[in-house]
Design a protein that fits this description.
Length: about 350
Amino acid sequence: MDSLPGEIMVNILSRLPIKPLLRCKSVCKSFLNITLDPYLIEAHLDRASSHDQNPSLILNTTVLNGTTHFRSQLYYTTLTPTQSNSPCDEVPFSPLNFGEFRVEGSCRGLLFLRHRTIDDFMFVINPCTGKRFEIPKLIIASCGVERGIAFGFSPKGNEYKVVKVIDGSASYVFSLSEGVWREAVGGAPSFKISENFESDECVCVNGVIHWSCYSPLNFIVCFDVGNEVFGMIPYPAGKLQLGEVTLVLFSGCIGFIEYDLNSEDDRVNIWVMEDYNVRESWTRSVIINVNHIGWDWGRFEILCVRKNGEVLMLHRNQALLVYDPKTMSCRKPNIVGLPSWFEAVCHVGSLVSPLGY
């Protein structure tokens, strides 16, 4: 293997799933060094991000810590296209005093975690490698209400950033490469962000973070991570159930879920924007007839839509289901070691470090 040119080694290793790729680090020193190569890290991430037939998930559950306290526990699993069993592995992550936390977002191989009760206690971690970075507290004079916080990536500057919106009047950015909080270059949004701003439902696509924002605004709020400016993307023209809209990642494109449960057949429509920021390109790509599923729809959460149209869903925080719109049926993937209760987010396993390459 040492006689192979570096570019061929990168090409071979970039095709491996994250678990066997990590095992390569223990083979020899030369393999360890190549897993630290930025070219391999980027090539592997690009391949893993474009391949959604075997989606990976991060699960977050709560376990008893000692006799009286609880803590969050992360798990990592990858769904297989066959009926073979998929393992559900624990992610070792338990920093001091960071007991119960939420997964606020997943972006290009990194997770953004936030303490459930201490809002300014945050980490960015790679759950596959175990590397982590603690986000320092934002200290500002303003005491306005936080309207949103999100984690995203800018291809323009090749950097990860956390953005926080305060009461619609100010916005602050923390860049992992700079290591400090500062005001966003583009300032605060030019429009008022109301209480209906869904800060916990965001999607990062094309270097832009998107939040759903309905009545009275009825559009998608977006933040360009590279240029640090806010903008708006309108929903498709026509009547939508805008009180019931959730953003979703549709095979690398921005999409949203329209819950049209007042229709005769109680359907759920999944729209995708095929040409980014072109209103006319909104297309209703998937229609789920709730009556055909055979499960209590009120307890479903759609996690992502795959290239083949299959919809990955979480039911009652207890089961994962895959809906096939062609057969209008659901199946349960076989996962060994699944917690009895959990939250879930789609994730791309990678070698990316929150500390930089």
